[in-house]
Design goal:
The chain folds into 2 domains: 102 residues, Hypothetical Protein Ychn, Chain: A, CATH 3.40.1260; 93 residues, DsrEFH-like (Hypothetical Protein Ychn, Chain: A, 3-Layer(aba) Sandwich). The two termini are 22 Å apart. 28% of the residues lie in helices and 26% in strands. The protein has a 5-stranded parallel beta sheet. It contains 7 helices and 11 strands. It is globular, with a radius of gyration of 18 Å. With 196 residues, it is an alpha/beta fold.
């Protein structure tokens, strides 16, 4: 069973990313996956009782009601909730700190816990939340794809870059280039994969 975390950082309007994140979460729950959905940043606005269908947007309320039935765990980052004045949460949504969200633990037999290995897949050159999460996790690795291969910074962890994306942009970087087969191997090798 694969553990999957879907991260939604966008509000319910002006983009379809949130509704697509919810739809993807539902699809992932249909396979033998342990799926969690984490709302951060403006993503917490998706928890408000909105009537998105009134302006031609997909309704997220149906997903929020259905997720507990298919064992999708729902989380909202406490700092984002406080910053945006969202106080009441729908049933089944758990408020967690930023540290809880990005410092996952697995339990071993005997009650000890061990940190999970996390692969962060980045698609954009600038993502402050991703950079903060990566720097706080010594067992993390980074895979740069699409425009993220243009990143000029250095990460304090093992960093890979999609060879095809590097070639398409005509650049070379100090990151370790990997092809699609190696990307698939990385996704399987890590306990958690977070795509941003």
């Amino acid at each position: 069973m694969k553990k999957i975390l879907v991260l939604v950082q966008d509000g319910p309007f002006n983009t379809i990313r949130s509704s697509e994140g919810f739809r993807m979460t539902m699809g992932l729950s249909l396979a033998d996956n342990e799926v969690s959905l984490l709302l951060m940043g403006d993503g917490v606005f998706n928890l408000l009782p909105l009537k998105a269908e009134m302006i031609g947007q997909p309704s997220i309320q149906t997903y929020l009601e259905y997720f507990p039935k298919v064992r999708v765990r729902l989380y909202a980052e406490a700092g984002a909730l406080a910053d945006r004045g969202v106080q009441s949460l729908p049933e089944g949504v758990k408020r967690i700190s930023y540290q809880e969200a990005f410092q996952p633990r697995l339990s071993r037999r005997g009650g000890d816990s061990v940190s999970m290995k996390t692969l962060h897949i980045l698609r954009k050159t600038i993502d402050p939340l991703a950079f903060e999460a990566i720097q706080s996790d010594p067992r993390a690795a980074v895979l740069l794809i699409q425009d993220a291969v243009l990143t000029k910074g250095v990460f304090p962890v093992e960093t890979y870059a999609c060879r095809e994306d590097l070639n398409a942009r005509g650049i070379e970087r100090a990151f370790r280039p990997v092809d699609y087969n190696e990307i698939a191997r990385l996704i399987i090798e890590y306990d958690r994969v977070i795509t941003r």
